[in-house]
Design goal:
Blueprint lengths: L1 H25 L10 H24 L11 H42 L11 H9 L6 H30 L1 H31 L6 H18 L1 H5 L3 H35 L4
Helix pairs in contact: 3-5, 3-6, 3-9, 4-5, 6-7, 7-9
Length: 273
């Protein structure tokens, strides 16, 4: 009996071992067996891609580090540039009026010359007056006209000198060059300002300063668009060009008054560099 009992125990142990090994071969809760390896690989790839996708999103949630452009140095670029552009805009406008003055002086001089009496071939009123007074028969009425026209001749001489001085200064080319530079730099820093604000604060602050800046860029574009028609002698285009630039200078004044409180906050809440 003891021998039979031991034999039975041995057989049961063998059966348990076989069943355990069989269960190990079939137990695959994660479906990691070789026959499902392709499915497993696909799932692993999806998980890895999701992890890689989520990692930069978490990093970007706080926003990138803009370095010096997020500090006081970058924040002061906009106000410094715009203060400079305000003065530059006034200078460009004065050059424009000088060019307009040079261009219209010719018509003014021609109108004055039409009021002069006949000089009888003389080169100036002084010469004509001398000839009239030295004639055998003095025409008193003619002499009176010549004397009355002498101030007009002096005015014509002054206008001619003014036109010559303006022509030598070249306001036309300077006005065009400064206007192009003003439109480029002004537009660039009008965009840089909101970008810098967004980099520092993560949002924009709509208000008078932002609206004035946007309107200023529109007026620059309008003034520049009038240039081709102005070059063809279109007076309406000249009027629009001048009006847009004068309105732009007015908006610059609004920019200064509304921008100073913002500038003080920037200085308060930013650090060098």
């Amino acid at each position: 009996m003891p021998s039979s009992s031991a034999s039975t125990s041995t057989r049961l142990s063998a059966l348990d071992t076989d069943a355990f090994e069989s269960s190990i071969e079939t137990f695959d809760p994660l479906n990691l067996s070789e026959e499902n390896s392709s499915t497993h690989n696909n799932r692993a790839a999806v998980i890895a891609a999701a992890a890689a996708f989520m990692t930069p999103l978490s990093a970007n949630a706080a926003g990138p580090d803009w370095g010096i452009f997020e500090g006081r140095t970058g924040s002061l670029l906009h106000p410094v540039a715009m203060f400079t552009m305000a003065a530059f805009s006034v200078s460009t406008g004065l050059l424009g009026f000088q060019w307009r003055r040079q261009r219209t002086l010719g018509d003014e001089i021609s109108s004055l010359k039409k009021t002069l009496p006949d000089l009888a071939g003389a080169s100036s009123i002084a010469d004509a007056l001398q000839n009239a007074q030295s004639a055998e028969t003095v025409d008193s009425a003619y002499v009176a006209k010549l004397k009355a026209a002498m101030p007009i001749e002096s005015q014509i001489s002054e206008l001619q000198k003014e036109r010559k001085d303006l022509a030598s200064a070249g306001p036309r080319d300077k006005h065009f060059s400064q206007g192009a530079l003003l439109a480029f730099i002004g537009t660039a820093f009008a965009i840089e300002g909101p970008l810098n604000t967004y980099a520092r604060a993560g949002k924009l602050f709509p208000g008078p300063h932002l609206y004035a800046g946007a309107g200023l860029v529109v007026l620059w574009a309008l003034a520049a668009s009038m240039v081709p028609a102005m070059q063809k002698g279109n007076d309406a285009a000249r009027t629009v060009h001048i009006g847009a630039n004068l309105a732009g200078i007015g908006l610059f004044g609004w920019q200064v008054t509304s921008g100073i409180p913002i500038l003080l906050k920037v200085v308060e809440f930013t650090k060098w560099p």
